[in-house]
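New to this. Help decode both lines:
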Amino acid sequence: VIANNGGTLSYAWTVTPATGFTYQNATTSTSSNPSWQFNVSGTYTIGITVTNDCGSVIKTQTFDVRPNGQLITSMSDSTGCAPKIVSFTDASTGDNLSHKWTVTPSTGVTFTSGTSTSPAPSLQFTLAGTYTVTHTLTGLCSIQSKSFTVEISTIPTLTLNPIANQCALPYNLIIDSTKFSINQNGKALSNIHWWVTDSTGVTYLDGTTRNSKYPHFQFSKTGQYTVWVETQNDCGKSTASRLFWVLAHAAEKTTTTPLTGCLPYKVNFTDQSSGDLITHKWTVSPATGWTMT
C-alpha cells in the first residue's frame, strides 16, 4: 500500500534472484501493481523503490516459493497366494509431507511393517479377494493419491455334503452340484481326483472316472466307505471326505426251547439274525409272572 503525499510517483521493482520467474498480465518492473509467476522453488526477495519529487522510499519482502509435492510410490507384487506380504516403497518429494494408506475391503489385511501413516509400509493379506490400496500424499502445496490393485488367491474350498447310510445293494451314489461344490478362490484348478476307501466292490458308472467333477459310483457290497475328493490350484491342494455305510437289510431269525412246560418253567432263545448295525428289543405280554434270567 503506497500513500502518495504529492507529486508523480514512479516505481522500480526488483526480484532477487533475478531468474525463475516471469512478469504476468502485461506488467513490468515499473508497473504500480505488477504480477509474477514463479516457476522455480526457492527463497526470493522482492524490492520496490517508489519515487516522487521529494525523494524515494525502498521496501523489501522475503518469502519462500515451495515446490509442489510429487507422489512417487510403488509396490512389490500385485498378485499372490494368501498369506501374502506386499511391500510398498516411497520416493515422494515435497515439503511438510504426510502419508495415509487405506485398503478396501479392510478385512483380511494387517500392517506387518509400518502403519497407515508410514511412507512405505508392508501389508499382509490373509483372505482371497481383490483389494484396492490407496496412498494419499499431503504436502504444503498439494494433495495427491495413487491406487494399486492387489489380487489375492487361496487354495480351493471344497464342500462335500454328508452322505446318508444306505440299505440297498447295489447302491448307486450320484455326485452332483447338490452334493459337491468348489470355490476356486481366484486360481484355475489344475486337476480333480476322487477315490474311495475301501475301494473293493466300487465301480464308476455312466462314463465318469476318478477325474470327473461329478462322478457316479456303484457299491456292490456292504461295508463302511469313505469318499474322498482332492483338487489343487497354484496356491495349493485341498481335500474333503465323507464316511457312510452300505448296509444289508436285517433278517430276523430266532430259535427257542419248547414253549410249554410246568411252573417254574425256563425258556431259552437263540438269535441267528443277519444284517448290519443290528439292535434287539424283546417284549412279553402279559407283563407279569415272568423274569429275565
Remarks:
- The chain has a mean pLDDT of 92.
